[in-house]
Design a protein that fits this description.
Helix 2 crosses helix 4 and helix 3 crosses helix 4. With about 80 residues, the protein is mainly alpha-helical. It is built from four helices and no strands. The N and C termini lie far apart (about 55 Å). The protein has a domain of about 55 residues. About 15% of the residues are buried. The protein is about 65% helix and about 0% strand.
């Protein structure tokens, strides 16, 4: 149950917040965010493990500290680019 508009609406405001039936996030949006997160984490972890096995310490440190480098490298490892 939402509180009355007078509680959360600023005086003189013309726009009020509209609530969805599903709440602040839809199940589809949650699934997409979770999928992107799992994809990124998997690619990053692939990069770290690959560099550790291959002895590429500078790239492993760069991929661990700057996660976009690790994600790009991990995806490259998946598709055979590296």
């Amino acid at each position: 149950m939402l509180p009355p508009a007078s509680v959360w609406r600023a005086e003189g405001a013309t726009n009020i917040m509209k609530f969805r039936k599903d709440g602040p996030i839809t199940p589809l949006t949650a699934a997409v965010c979770l999928g992107i997160g799992l994809f990124s984490y998997s690619a990053w972890l692939t990069s770290i493990v690959f560099c550790a096995v291959a002895g590429l310490r500078p790239l492993m440190v760069a991929g661990a500290l700057f996660f976009p480098v690790g994600i790009v490298h991990g995806v490259g490892v998946w598709f055979g680019g590296w």
